[in-house]
Amino acid sequence: MSVSFTVSKTGEKENHKEIEIKLNQLQPNPPPQSKKPWLLASIVLILEVAGAVGEAQLTALGFKLSESFNVTVGNETTITPGRSFEAPYFYTLARFIARSTAFPILFVGMWIFSLVSAKSFSPKGFFRHCSTPAGPGPSGITPLGMVRLFALPTIFAITTGVGYIVALVYVAPSITSACFSTGVAMSYILSIFFLKHPHLIIKTVFVLVSFGGVAMVAYETTTDPLASDAWIGILAVMLSTISLSLHQLFYSKSFPNADSFQSAFIVSVIFLCAALIYWPVPLAMKLSGNEVWQWSDIPWGYLIGGLMCSLSVAFLYGYGLALSTPFFMSLGELLNLALAGIVDHFARGVSIGPYQISGFAIIGFSFFVLLLPDRILAVSYIREQFTSFRSGKRVNSVTPHIGTRLHTTESKKNLVGSGESTASLAPAS
């Protein structure tokens, strides 16, 4: 429903301002079809979280196959080494290659769908549309443009992926999920310095509070006598979190208006470039003996399962962004944090101490506060709502809610500035 008002200013010649106000929610009972996208987005969000948790658990289980076990025969006990596959650098390369197939799989899927449904499909036109963000204008894709747009997102995608997988070698997935939730706090700090966004005191306070939660989790994790090398995992996941925030920042600056199809192309290019740049690292680690493994020792079931989960997360996250908003999809980090802790405790028997539980709660609450729009936390808005509550009158304030779609470039910049993650199609982790 659309209502238009025309306001003429007297005394000024031909100075007319037309204000068009779109009131999409005036209908008291919206039709059922208007609710379907959000129901579908909720399902996509749950599946995306399940895929992320599945990838983390399968990866951790694959690395844990390297643990040795005791075999007792009569009065003699011998230590039998397990399958040695602590190869985080090799697995990171495999993840990059898997995620680089996002656009080819989408392209083939669209082509097969057009054949089955007898609908027209132009491969050249589809590719031209998807590659537009990489080379806007008549000149198309150029080497200089590719470097300018993709260099920084690719570099930080590499450091994010390496830090995340190395962390899973030393700490449980629930710990990595908790530390990753502070990425919103990192993004908020970066938006203040790089995007010149005015900060709110209350959000700055909760940034510090979230880091306090990480400190509590790190304290109990590193003081566990059974996890003497856990500090390596904590440092790795914090490095990965900072890199992820920088990846999201430069991705948003390079590709502010990409749709879901274009995001698939961008992600494929980023991770293909990451694989081409990164492949000497696992090769050097293998030849130098710092990463010891054999092809026969690779747990192919866990490896393939984790890679499939990683690829599914890429598709589901991008589809969820097309259906909803970055704010709504960012709530998946809270679900990921809770679900990873439950799976660690009940399925893998990982004990969770009181400091870790308290740290999880602090990080989760701080994460939610940082995702709230600035206007909700502004003193003027709080005073306005308090006054209306005391007077019994409802004040109609223009405040974005979870179902608000934002399409413009300026809106996406505001999302970054307010702490809402405008991440790429798939988290670089």
Q: What portion of residues belong to β-strands?
A: 5-15%
**How do the strands line up in the largest sheet?**
1-2
Structural class: mainly alpha
Count of helical stretches: 18
Domain tally: 1
User: Got a strand count?
Assistant: 4
Q: Give the termini separation.
A: 42 Å
Helix content range of the residues, please?
55-70%
Summarize the biggest pleated sheet. Answer: 2 strands, antiparallel
The backbone outline, from C-alpha atoms, is globular
Order of helices and strands: EEHEEHHHHHHHHHHHHHHHHH
| Alpha carbon gyration radius | 25 Å
Low-confidence stretches: 1-36, 66-71, 397-427
Overall pLDDT: 72
